[in-house]
Design goal:
The chain contains three helices and no strands. The protein has about 80 residues and is an all-alpha fold. α2 runs antiparallel to α3.
Length: about 80
Amino acid sequence: MLEQFIKENSDYNIDKLSEKPIRSIVKSFSWRIVGTIDTVLISWIITGKLTTAFSIGAVELGTKMVLYFFHERIWNKIKWGK
């Protein structure tokens, strides 16, 4: 369902050299898992409070996943380095 929506609302069909949008989504999830663990650990070390660290991690998880997805899609439109 998500993949169909993305295909209908993206330029992937025009540019076959770019990654499929679903790949960008999966990459954003896997990278955010790593990044969020890092953020939670750093936040815990700095604040000394695990609940605060998880709160910070939860907020950054959502925002950075969205930012990464759009960052990937923009870079797929840039011809430099291809």
